[in-house]
Amino acid sequence: MAKKKTISLLLTAGLVLSVNGVSAQEPSQAPNAQSATAFDNKVIKKISADNMYDTIAKLSAQPRAAGTEGELIGAQYIKSQFEQYGYETELQPFPFYEALRNNVSGTLEVNGKPLNPYVMSGSYSGEVTAEVVYVGLAYADKVPEAVKGKIALIERGDITFVEKIKNVLDKGALGVIMYNNSGTTNRFGSANPGQNIPAVAITRAQGLDLVEQLKAGSLTATIKVEGSGFIEKTSYNVIAKMKPNKNKDTGQVVMVGAHHDSVPGGPGANDDASGVSAVLELARVMAKTQIDTELRFVTFGAEEKGLLGSSYYASTFSEEEADRIVAHFQMDMIGSRDAGGDHPAGGLIMYTIDGKKNLVTDLGSAAGARTAAAETIPMGQLGRSDHEPFHLLGIPAALFIHSPLEPWYHTPADTIDKIDKNKLQETAEIVGASVYQIARPDTPALKNARVAPGLVDYEFENRSPGA
User: Looking at residue 11, what is its pLDDT?
Assistant: First the structure.
């Protein structure tokens, strides 16, 4: 893993950029916001919400679920646009595994009594009969050796389903019965490819009853799962790069991303054709702009499957490459007229993984105050999007999104008629001005900035997306 960067940006009496704690200029030398705006206009005046709207129309004409023809059509269109703008472009395929849910069946009997279980998503298909051993929450250091050759009874909670299954599988368990930690449902749970033991879920009441029965004596269970497992599919990342002239190259990289896949059956106009539209528009605008930093625009596949595309792309970085990337700007769901509630700036917020300010949020909030939004953009804490894998590499990263989310999030009603062009424009301007602040030759290697935004003070908000 790449070491955590020490690049910082202090917004006091103007912008003071520093690297490894060494300031590039004194606060008193920082120019005013008007100078910064003049330079911003080289980028933001060229941004067209109409272009973005047209992109959303093209991408949302059909669903783009990962691994489908619709996703590939969308990815190829994005690639063609990047190429048209003059970028070095790559369509990066990667495999992923999708759980089979059609024609899946499962049974569970304990001491001859049927319990009508739910088959965990992706469970291995097979039949096993063995004694039951209670292993609690199945922490790796708490699973007893006695589970070897037995069926593990596990309580849901604290760690993920796949971790629990791995921990008992590592100790030689032959099957899994997992009971809920609240409520009355048994519909939960998932396994990973390669976890080749049948795994089923039961209700909390059923699980607690089995725990009590085990206190009185042994139990023997039979688990039978049919039709379950995984199918391998292919998704894609689209990567576009533009390097500066060698004589001006700082060796640094700034990244802008969005995910192009949608949920199955959904047109995904806002989620996330809107983000992709801004990525493409900023790539178009910046294609002919003077830069001293490599621009890297990426749209990710299989975000809806668990950030798979961004995680795959981040996994390809060497430590040296990760250290060259000074910022990652992620845009997800930036165009819905019905998102954001009554919050200022249409509800736009910047989420970081750890809830701490970084270079991206500093630049983003300052840009918001001097662009079309005319608002200081707040920050919050949230994962659930493609900024996470880059944060884990030590790269300053943030998610730009309107929060709380719209009522038709992840439904077939996420259509283009609900897109607000003003929100598209404002978000693209904020991200574009922020990226340009890093990439323009006036700020080589984030040092010696002579054009800077003015003073801003932005707050942390404990705001949930609500979905």
Answer: 35
